What does this fold into?
Amino acid sequence: MLELLADPQAWISLLILSAMEIVLGIDNIVFISILCSKLPPEQQAKGRRLGLAAALLSRLALLGAISWVMQLTQPLFTLVREWSGKDLILALGGVFLLYKATHEIYENVEQPEDHHAPGGGTKVRGGATFLSIVLQVLVLDVVFSLDSVITAVGMAEHIPVMVAAMLIAVLVMVAFAAPIGDFILKRPSVRILALSFLVLIAIGLIMEGTGTHFPKGYIYSSMAFSLGIELLHLRMRSRTKREAV
It folds into this structure.
């Protein structure tokens, strides 16, 4: 353990892996924020904290069972192609995320009067219990965590480096989850854009699960570009309103 502190390569791995985990954690923040917006205002912060805690614990648990995780890449059965446990988890998780994202887009676009509160944000709807929201977050946390851990194993050699990178990433997520979530939920156009990102991520998970490698860089670069355009659009609208007054 102590020798890692004096190893420059370990520090470089920690830096790169932390950055990668933070980027991968954006998915979690967006999904958790949108789901927790269905809760009463007094429960939303608690739901976010539980979701982020579950994200960290599921990552650490999968790292602790790293030998089992690696076995998930072994073929289980053949149906048109060979399927492993990892393939099934990613594909089914992608389908679930695709359903949730498209369902949320439908509600935001087709039923805005039932979805948006008058002053911005999201109106609490019946049927969304705290337990149901937390369970949905847990399901996607496992999928995102599996993808994250397999990425970490491919980038670093030492378990302590992976654990440290995930702790750093989750601390960053905790620090920025509330402002990012509030920013998304108070702006309908940004919320639709975020949900569209989740559709892209879901398609990427399904493609990975069905054996088609899809570089994540394409998804995140398109997300960054689209977000940049939307931020310019928001600034333009804000200046137009100020000049009109």
